[in-house]
Amino acid sequence: MFLETPRLILRKFREEDFADYCTFSLGDPERDRMMGRSPLNTVEDVRLNFNWLKDKEERGYALVLKETNKVIGNLTVYNRGFSSEEHPELSGKKGFSFSLGISNEYKRQGLIFEATQDVINHLFLKEDADYVGAGHFSYNIPSRELQKKLGFSYLFSETIDLFGETVTELNNILWKKDWKIKYKSHEKGHS
User: What residue numbers bound the domain in which 53 lies?
Assistant: First the structure.
């Protein structure tokens, strides 16, 4: 998938993106906590995470700001939704989920909303998804607000152990029928 929004390009990570990725990922314990990942305290930590996104995540994308051609974040699409065994209403439905992060410097500028809108459009209109799922930890207010703004609704929550801390993860869903009604004017022909 390659997507272009008014201000961003979403594309696969390349080796030359490492310096930009390192700049916004290194030594930010709050971002690590929000994303539920091991702390990235050293360049080696960031390298492991970067290599995973670049080489192992089939759909790990760099968020490239067109104005500067710098990587300012990442968005990963997972080719799976929620378990239909635990949620029978999802039985026979095609679902995807995603996770994302952005440099502190570019927060609160509508860039993540812009990127996720286009990704969701693509999943519904080009890949025929029935729903898109997304989760956030109870303390991750920016993710909660983003999902709310995009039209996601609560599906379920679970309590998990995250590096020795008990946290609640809230999982939300956006159905295709609800997206097309709310965002019909945003349909685009990206591939």
Answer: 3-83+90-186
| β-bridge pairing 165-175 and 153-162 | antiparallel
| 156 to 22, 71, 152, 172, 173: CA distances (angstroms) | 34, 33, 12, 7, 9
142/66: higher pLDDT: 66
Checking if the pLDDT of 90 tops 90, the result is no
Q: Give a yes or no: residue 15 inside a domain.
A: yes
Sheet holding 60-65, edge to edge: 3-4, 8-12, 60-65, 70-78, 95-102, 131-137, 165-175, 153-162
> The pTM is what?
0.83
Cα–chain center distance at 71: 15
Mean per-residue pLDDT of the chain: 84
Token digits for 88?
A: 């029978």
| Residue 69 contacts residue 20 (beta carbons within 8 Å) | no
How far is residue 140's CA from residue 31's CA, in Å, rounded to a whole number? 10
In a domain, 116, yes or no: yes
Going by pLDDT thresholds of 50, 70 and 90, the confidence category of residue 128 is: very high
CA distances from 91 to 25, 32, 84, 158, 180 (A): 37, 33, 5, 20, 21
The answer, yes or no, to whether residue 186 has pLDDT greater than 50, is no
* Ramachandran area for residue 132 (φ above 0: left; ψ -120 to 50: alpha; else beta): beta
